[in-house]
Amino acid sequence: MLSADRSDRGPFWTRPIPVGQAELNPSVLDEIDANGGRTGFRGYVLQIFEALDAPPSGVLEIAFNRKQRRACGIYESEASGPAARKDHVVLMTDPVWFAASTPQEAANVLFQTLVDRAPDL
Question: At 92, which helix (H) or strand (E)?
């Protein structure tokens, strides 16, 4: 997990955990299939935390190709509120393409890209 800067407030995330391609979200797989295929891509997931003592607030899913130095990823989170308690609701971003040279850099770039694209509240 990333180290805290004298604060217990995040976001923090775990190191990239390798997973099989079949474990990635279908939208990520469809995106890499539409852009050259799955050959050379490895799957990674990371849990996101808003505080060190809190449960995960979401997950980053990344398909990373070391040889091509590119990746595609999404952020997923379970919805909260009355509707989410009744039905299991998962929210996710559209797949994002970006350059990266390691799985950890891919996680950092994906997170920052999503933050930069978020609308001002």
Answer: strand 90-92
User: 3-class DSSP state for residue 119?
Assistant: coil
Residue 109 banded pLDDT, cuts 50, 70, 90: very high
The pLDDT value recorded for residue 85 is 55
Contact present, 50 and 56 (Cβ < 8 Å): no
Domain segments of the chain as ranges: 9-116
From CA 111, how far away is CA 84, in angstroms rounded?
A: 24
Vertex 76, ends 72 and 79: CA angle to 5°?
A: 160
**Predicted pLDDT at 7:** 58
Q: Calculate mean pLDDT across residues 60-86.
A: 83
Q: Enumerate the β-bridge partners of residue 92.
A: 76
DSSP characters for 40-80? Answer: T-EEEEEEEEEETTSPP-EEEEEEEETTTTEEEEEEEEE--
pTM: 0.81
